[in-house]
């Protein structure tokens, strides 16, 4: 489902940049801070820059987060505004949100970042050497194609 913004000039139609709305029940991922890597659900909007988030399944205590600390996902649960943790836990279990989040690209990207951060010195060296060799093959192939055309 695509959202488009139509200007006064009807010949131009621009695709909207942000499609994930910040709303009650939206599942989010904490990117920064001491709770980084945990998931939660938006329970209430405090003001324009702060959200009350609760994540009973991931061990995230109900607390206020800044918008720049979190990443909004496509997943959403149906909960009332300011509901208790018990209601959030039941809604997450009902929609099987933790399993759906593990299949998302955001989860896979964070796992890859954690795996890369856990590499030792020699493993980082081997990774760099293999990347360099791979890129060298690509460059040589592109050069051959340019020469032939």
Structure description:
The strands form two sheets. Strands 6-5-4-3-7 form a five-stranded antiparallel beta sheet. Strand 5 (50-55) and strand 6 (60-66) form a beta hairpin. It has four helices and seven strands. Helix content is 39%, strand content 26%. It is elongated. The two termini are 40 Å apart. The protein has 149 residues and is of the alpha+beta class.
Note the main sheet.
5 strands, antiparallel
| Averaged pLDDT | 87
* Structure summary, number of beta strands: 7
Distance between the termini: 40 Å
Widest beta sheet: strand line-up: 6-5-4-3-7
Radius of gyration: 21 Å
Highlighted features:
single chain, 149 residues, alpha+beta, 5-stranded antiparallel sheet, two-stranded antiparallel sheet, 4 helices, 39% helix
Write the layout of secondary structure elements.
Elements: E1 4-6, E2 13-15, E3 26-30, E4 39-45, E5 50-55, E6 60-66, E7 70-76, H1 85-95, H2 97-102, H3 105-117, H4 121-148
Antiparallel strand pairs: 1-2, 3-4, 3-7, 4-5, 5-6
Short précis:
The protein is of the alpha+beta class and 149 residues long. 39% of the residues lie in helices and 26% in strands. It has four helices and seven strands, in the order βββββββαααα.
């Amino acid at each position: 489902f695509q959202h488009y913004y139509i200007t006064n000039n009807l010949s131009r139609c621009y695709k909207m940049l942000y499609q994930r709305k910040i709303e009650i029940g939206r599942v989010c991922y904490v990117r920064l801070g001491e709770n980084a890597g945990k998931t939660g659900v938006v329970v209430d909007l405090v003001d324009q820059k702060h959200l009350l988030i609760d994540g009973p399944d991931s061990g995230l205590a109900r607390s206020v987060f800044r918008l720049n600390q979190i990443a909004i996902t496509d997943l959403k649960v149906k909960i009332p505004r300011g509901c208790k943790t018990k209601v959030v836990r039941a809604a997450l279990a009902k929609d099987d949100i933790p399993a759906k989040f593990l299949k998302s690209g955001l989860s896979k990207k964070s796992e890859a970042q954690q795996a890369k951060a856990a590499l030792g010195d020699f493993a980082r060296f081997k990774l760099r050497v293999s990347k360099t060799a791979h890129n060298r093959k690509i460059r040589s192939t592109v050069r051959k194609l340019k020469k032939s055309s």
